[in-house]
Amino acid sequence: MKVVDILRVKGGTLFTVAPDEALGLALSVMAERDIGSLVVMEHGDLVGMLTFREVIQAIVKNGGNVGTTIVRTVMDDHPLTCTPETEIDEVRRMMLGRHARYMPVMNGRTLMGVISFYDVAKAVVDGQDFENRMLKAYIRDWPVEENPEPESKL
């Protein structure tokens, strides 16, 4: 299974923010849309990722509020990325290795979407459920031999 399979099911809605936007505005978008991340784009290029991990760290560092903080100062400026053709097992390894919950999907310089660890886990479970149903159906429909050979008694 590949990332493109997740994007096909998930759809193409993307939420982005500019790096010089106020963190408070970014938080409002995240809360309003019930999303855990925003892709940070500048002049059409991916420049970072803002997740609630960076937001919480910024709020704690700033004494419990966002103040005049801008996105650029708190974003992850080297986010993990993958392509639509990346295998899901590789994405899992990458996300686990960096404790990343969100990963932008890039096709060259074009942002195709964002997948979350939840999306990956759901795809894996759905794939396993499908395989399990197919195996059970195969076993249930196992052909019965008409003239079975007798067992050899050695």
From TrEMBL:
Residues 6-66, 75-130 form the CBS domain. It comes from the Bacteria. Gene3D superfamilies: CBS-domain. Keywords: CBS domain. InterPro entries: CBS_dom (IPR000644), CBS_dom_sf (IPR046342), Diverse_CBS-Domain (IPR051257). PROSITE patterns: CBS. This is CBS domain-containing protein. It comes from Roseateles violae. The lineage of its organism: Bacteria, Pseudomonadati, Pseudomonadota, Betaproteobacteria, Burkholderiales.
